[in-house]
Design goal:
The chain is an alpha+beta fold. Helices cover 19% and strands 44% of the residues. The protein has a two-stranded antiparallel ribbon. Strand 1 and strand 2 (32-40) form a beta hairpin.
């Protein structure tokens, strides 16, 4: 998801997702470039 979508980021974090990285200037909205946030969540007994 894009880095400026704070409600979505907060929702994912609230259920255990963690930020694993970002891809810089991946998406374009109008004349603005936005970073994409990469998130993952461990499944019990498995690495992320």
């Amino acid at each position: 998801m894009v880095s400026v979508n704070e409600p979505a980021l907060a929702l994912y974090r609230s259920v255990g997702f963690e930020e694993r990285g970002r891809t810089v200037r991946t998406s374009k909205r109008g004349d603005r470039y936005l970073d994409e946030v990469l998130m993952s969540k461990s499944i019990e007994g498995r690495p992320p």
